[in-house]
Structures are given as C-alpha cells and as structure tokens.
Amino acid sequence: MIQQGCLEVQQIVPQLYAQGINPTLKNIRQFMAKPSALWKKEVVDAFWEARRSVENS
Q: Quick check: 8 and 46 in contact, CB under 8 A?
C-alpha cells in the first residue's frame, strides 16, 4: 500500500499542477484509488517531494 500510494502521489501531483489545480493533500485525495495511503508518513513524504519537484521545474 505504501509503494502504490507513493507512485500515485508522484503521478497525480504533476497532473494537477499542469491543470492549474493546487496540489494539496486534500485535492490529491480525490484522485487516489486508496486515499487512506495518505495516513502513511512515507506517502506524505513522497507528496512533498513531488510537490517540490514540480514547483522548482
């Protein structure tokens, strides 16, 4: 579940950003197959990493 959650987050964040949608945890939850993965620290860390990546590119 952690690995799948990390992959989902890494895919969704840039998609939302490209559409002009602020990629917050609340917004990303709506697009995840298993939003409960966001309870895992590793998934949240992957979210912040993906967000930093799209904002700095």
A: no
Question: CB-based burial of residue 40 (10 Å sphere; 0-12 exposed, 13-18 middle, 19+ buried)?
Answer: middle
Q: Give yes or no for a contact between 50 and 39, defined as CB atoms under 8 angstroms apart.
A: no
**pTM attached to this predicted model:** 0.91
How does 7-20 read in b/e, with b if 16+ C-beta sit within 10 Å? ebbeebbeebbeee
pLDDT at 57: 82
Average pLDDT of span 29-43: 95
Cα 39 to Cα 53: distance, rounded to the nearest angstrom: 21
